[in-house]
Write a structure and sequence with these properties.
By secondary structure, the protein is α/β, with parallel strands linked by helices. The protein has 16 helices and 29 strands. Helix 2 runs parallel beside helix 4, helix 2 packs parallel to helix 8 and helix 8 packs antiparallel against helix 10.
């Protein structure tokens, strides 16, 4: 299909990931910090893995196993644990129960049990309650703040002697031949032109016998490792963008709510959620697949329109929006999993590997389980004193035999079915639910989000009222973004971006990083909240100095 001025294909203007600078075939610094196992990313996967490994080591020492001390580190790019963690979130507690068998559900940092739930099909002026699909039934699960869960897991890890390095993004993997031997952190205090400023601190090398990439959605080191190792998947990974707000309200919400339909067009996949965290605190969000077809579709603006709907407005009026955030979510499912998630000295866990099951809207417990399996494989490899790929292959065997892959396989084509449109996709998804994935049998092929053509046309104007609805700049302020204004750009922008593509970027980014000024693209890197939508459809995201980005408190 030839490209016209009314249609653009984002991938044609997207630069390559600079993977050569993310994979460094350089010797470790002689003063490198010596570790045995490093988890890159302090989210649910990395922290659950660190806790599981620390417990296995402790038990081995108590039983005289002979392994001895094992130094475990977690590198987290946010200034504090949880500051970059965002999810809906309704949590399946099964992974927490497995990781902490000595605790009860009441001991976990979860807010409220799900006792009531409602699903609605939305129109512009009304809503119709529909039966809750079997995959979305959440009785026995809990509403939670992922920020709080991550901070709690961090405390448990520290109590077990895990070395926590917050504010230390991993800038590159350090490799010898085809083996990962550690990571190099980002420098800090650089001026806009990349030269050292008055507060400059050089990068730090961290040596590791096993490096676990638990860096979350669209992790740059994970992408670089997969490219370097030539590890593919049956389908490319696809993503959704979620934009979320926390509201202090005057009216309590008595159930979790999910919606489908309006304000999304019928050729876009997604829906909204509203969860009660406290009697007067709700989380409201909208999630939209990034393979949408309208170049002017703007998830942030759609969320602002959603708040004006009669279903939600009564809960929000008179209240206050206290926090805002955005994050991408891997949605490709079973067929988008990397064919191999292990290598010489390396493992991939959590969202970095794509362990999210879209039909049930779940990923947190899968991330935790994968981190725990990574810990078990790493522990066994350390016991054998062999951390080559063949030894670490136990990780893939554990994952493939677990609820992670079982659930993803049963629902392997559900998200992909919606390529046919909302209504036909819904019929197909229902049949897939009944047959546990046996229908339609084979794999539905998928292309990358950036390869999906987007039509460029007029957009519906939006003016925030600054009471119920807000502009992007005000939303970013509510994210607590503390990035320096003079920080070097971490975004790799393509050359000669045409105005139609600038339009795509402007609407795609929920944080106002990209603006179209006439026929020019204007980039404001400090606005970035690390949602990674840009890396999916536009300029590539690379690590920046520690502590940059949002500072979520209750997301």
């Amino acid at each position: 299909m030839s490209e016209t001025r009314s249609q653009v294909v984002p991938s044609r203007y997207q630069p390559e990931l600079p993977w050569e600078r993310l994979i460094r075939k350089e010797p470790l610094d002689p003063e490198a910090v010596p570790m045995d196992v490093v988890f890159v990313g302090g989210g649910p996967a990395g922290l659950a893995g660190a806790i599981e490994l620390a417990r296995l080591v402790k038990k081995d020492k108590e039983q005289g196993g002979g392994l001895g001390d094992v130094e475990i580190a977690v590198l987290e790019k946010a200034e504090t644990l949880g500051a970059h963690s965002l999810s809906g979130a309704v949590v399946n507690p099964s992974a927490l129960r497995e990781l902490f068998p000595e605790l009860k559900d009441a001991d976990f940092p979860l807010r409220t049990p799900v006792t009531q739930e409602r699903v609605y099909f939305m129109t512009g002026s009304g809503s119709y309650r529909i039966p809750t699909p079997p995959t979305m039934q959440n009785h026995g699960h809990y509403v939670a703040s992922l920020c709080e869960l991550v901070r709690w897991l961090g405390e448990k890890a520290e109590a077990l002697g895990v070395n926590m390095f917050t504010g230390y993004p991993a800038d590159a993997l350090l490799v010898e031949e085809d083996r990962v031997v550690g990571v190099r952190t980002t420098p800090s205090g650089l001026k806009r032109d990349g030269s050292p400023g008055s507060g400059y601190a050089p990068p730090t090398d961290v040596a590791a016998r096993v490096t676990v990439l638990s860096e979350g959605t669209r992790g740059p080191l994970t992408q670089a490792w997969l490219r370097w190792q030539q590890v593919g998947s049956d389908n490319p990974q696809i993503y959704a963008l979620g934009v979320k707000e926390l509201w202090e309200t005057k009216r309590p919400l008595d159930a979790i709510i999910h919606t489908m339909g309006w304000p999304l067009p019928t050729d876009a996949f997604g829906g909204s959620f509203c969860y009660p965290l406290e009697p007067n605190l709700v989380a409201l969000g909208l999630v939209v697949g990034l393979d949408y077809q309208d170049a002017t579709l703007d998830v942030h603006v759609l969320l602002q329109r959603l708040k004006q709907h009669p279903l939600f407005r009564p809960y929000l009026e008179g209240g206050e929006m206290v926090e805002w955030g955005a994050k991408t979510i891997p949605e490709g499912g079973y067929y988008a999993l990397p064919r191999r998630r292990h290598g010489n000295g390396a493992l991939i866990a959590g969202d970095a590997a794509g362990f999210v099951e879209v039909a049930s809207l779940k990923g947190i417990h899968y991330a935790m389980l994968s981190g725990m399996y990574a810990a078990r494989a790493a522990f066994a490899a350390l016991k054998r004193n062999d951390t080559q790929a063949a030894s670490l292959a136990e990780y893939d065997r554990l994952v493939d035999g677990s609820p992670i892959v079982r659930d993803l396989r049963e629902r392997r084509n559900m998200r992909l079915a919606f390529k046919s449109g909302f209504y036909l996709g819904g019929i197909k998804a229902g049949l897939m639910t009944l047959t546990k994935g046996a229908f339609p049998g084979g794999r539905i092929e998928m292309h990358a989000d950036a390869d999906a053509p987007k039509r460029v046309g007029p957009e519906e104007p939006f003016t925030p009222d600054n009471t119920l609805t807000f502009a992007k700049v005000d939303a970013v302020f509510k994210a607590g973004n503390a990035t320096r204004d003079d920080i070097p750009s971490h975004l790799v922008v393509g050359q000669d971006v045409p105005p139609e593509v600038a339009t795509v970027y402007q609407h795609m980014c929920p944080a106002g990083v990209y603006e179209r000024s006439g026929d020019k693209l204007v980039v404001n890197p400090p606005n970035c909240v690390d949602c990674k939508a840009t890396d999916v459809l536009g300029p590539r995201w690379t690590p920046r100095e520690g502590g940059s980005g949002p500072r979520y408190r209750r997301m």
